[in-house]
Amino acid sequence: MHFAASYVGVKKELLPAYLDPNVIDNVNELMTGVSFASAGSGFDPLTPSISSVIPIPKQLEYFRECKKKLENVIGIEGTENHIKKAVFFMSAGTNDFALNYFTLPVRRNSFSLLGYQQFLIQRVKEFLQELLAEGAQKIVIAGVPPMGCLPFMITMNSPNAFLQRNCIERFSSAAKDYNQLLQQELNTMQFHLNSSNSPAKIYYIDIYQPLANMVQAHQKYGFEDINSGCCGSGYIEAALLCNKECNVCSDPSKYMFWDSIHPTEKAYYNLFLAFKSTIDCIVNN
Fold first, then answer.
1. Chain-centroid distance, C-alpha 105
2. Measuring CA to CA, how many Å separate 276 from each of 8, 12, 271, 272?
3. Organism's domain of life (predicted)?
4. pLDDT digit string (tens) for 104-122?
5. Where are the domains of the chain?
6. How far apart are CA 25 and CA 27, in angstroms?
7. pTM of this prediction?
8. Three-state helix/strand/coil letters over 162-176
9. Which of 110, 116, 175, 244 maximizes the CB count within 10 A of its CB?
10. Coil, strand, or helix at residue 142?
């Protein structure tokens, strides 16, 4: 997301967190882009409770709070116009599957895989409807990656994970199916928006295929390690487990993954290049 923000002219090295004490009451920062995201969260309300992170509904509350602060400075109409021009980027779902459904038994005991995918799609729909109601007109939502290639999933689900580390097809297949359902729902929502003459646009970004390409042709991209992370052992650490106390690899650019779930900066840059044409489309519209 930081690469995309820089590409469209946001004069910031990084998009700061909304809750950063230096940002939360700084209107100039709020007007030029902030992040409401919380690492480890997901569309399933159970997911953020597992990792003790901020749920998506609460993130939406923070956005509403941000709106009020803008209204106090540039007025209601000014804020509405500002939000109409803004681009909202949403990426979630991986934690719901990898850390919740496939790792813990609670959701698997309640849902079939298809049922859980549909459950998440409904949560996505509800979130997007609320965001649209707040005045958003340009929304970008990313699919999920080939989850069977995440170091965490390989470690947790391989019979001999420390000696033989390969992508696990059934998890990547689940990701593909979910992405297809997500695209169908987004197309349906866009159809209804168009039918009601709404100017709002919802864009889907595929991160699955670009990441799959990096795995399959990793040498072409300059990666030497594609199935373990740079942080800690590279097999299990993610989010809070990957912290300043952990050892890290000497050259992250040779790794596709930073921790056991999240890509490195180099991999994210390759992702940005893959969906740059979508960004161009959004900006031109």
1. 24
2. 10, 18, 9, 6
3. Eukaryota
4. 999 999 999 999 999 999 9
5. 2-209
6. 6
7. 0.94
8. CCCCCCCHHHHHHHH
9. 175
10. strand
